[in-house]
Design goal:
By secondary structure, this protein is of the alpha/beta class. It contains five helices and 18 strands. Strand 15 (about 230) and strand 16 (about 235) form a beta hairpin.
Length: about 300
């Protein structure tokens, strides 16, 4: 359950400004919106369906099945070990697609072939160029700290690109650039009702310290874990880094995702559960199996 004692002003901290902000209008009239309840449905890997304030948002679509392989670049492949909770044909109508970066386990060949190409996409400039070339509606390409303000009836959603790095040192040049996302939901009156942070495939690094400085109150965080290793090097947070990220970002509640699904994921969820217990943070983490839904109240 996500609860807060006060509403945030809709925007960054006083004195801050967004580097870039643009508007996207989805609908002028959608009826009464529910700002009291929402949900996160876990499809698998980093794929979730977020429902809140009248918005339905899909993240990092990965609908391959167990035994399928993804290409990670430079001749590297990984086998999927699990099935998604639903197939792509079973998706609800979507308002937005949020894509942290262009990798086969985050935007696969099934998504490229079968997703509705008119659905608005918010992603990195690198991924945006590729998707537009494949016939998708021109995505909103956000650099770090850039924002998109989405309107749907009386509801407002500001999506801001957060810092992230997918690899250490020289390996950073061969992996695609990645972004985290801050989602700030508001009603007609403008006060933020819910602030949700999605880490994206990032490691714990210095620039993440800017996030709690700008956003000292975060209601819900979705943590990309898995301890992915490429050429022996860690490229997503493992259990230890996940706990440190929890302490740094300090969300009221966190949901781990992106674990146990591929052979390159070397840090299982059980390791994170153990580390969370040792840190005394069990009450602030909700674990989801594929197909489970976290229902929250604001």
């Amino acid at each position: 359950m996500v609860k807060g004692k006060k509403r945030h002003k809709f925007g960054t901290l006083e004195g801050e400004r967004y580097i870039l902000e643009r508007d996207l209008i989805l609908s002028d009239s959608v009826g009464e919106i529910d700002l009291e309840k929402g949900s996160v449905f876990f499809v698998g890997t980093a794929t979730v369906i977020i429902r809140y304030a009248g918005f339905t948002i899909l993240t990092d679509p990965n609908f391959l099945h167990a035994g399928d392989h993804v290409h990670l670049g430079y001749g590297l492949h990984s086998e999927r070990l699990t099935d998604p909770a639903i197939d792509i044909e079973d998706l609800p109508p979507l308002d937005l697609l949020l894509l942290s970066h262009l990798h086969g386990d985050h935007f696969d060949r099934v998504a490229e072939e079968k997703l509705d190409k008119t659905v608005p996409i918010v992603t990195t400039p690198h991924a945006a160029r590729y998707l537009e070339g494949k016939g998708f509606r021109p995505p909103a390409a956000l650099k770090t700290w850039d924002s998109l303000l989405v309107h749907k009836g009386d509801a407002r959603l500001r999506i801001t690109a957060m810092p992230g790095t997918h690899a250490p040192g020289p390996l950073r040049k061969v992996l695609p650039p990645v972004m985290g996302s801050m989602l700030e939901f508001a009603g007609a009156e403008g006060g933020i009702q819910l602030r949700m942070y999605i880490t994206g495939d990032t490691l714990l690094y210095d620039r993440l310290k800017e996030i709690p400085e700008r956003y000292p109150e975060i209601d819900l965080a979705l943590l990309h874990l898995g301890g992915t290793r490429v050429l022996g090097l860690l490229v997503t947070m493992d259990a230890k880094q996940g706990v440190e990220a929890m302490k740094l970002i300090d969300p009221r509640m966190a949901v781990p995702i992106h674990y146990n699904d591929y052979t390159v994921f070397k840090s299982p969820l059980e390791d994170f559960k153990k580390a969370i217990a040792e840190a005394g943070l069990e009450e602030r983490v909700r674990y989801l199996a594929h197909g489970e839904t976290y229902e929250f109240e604001v």
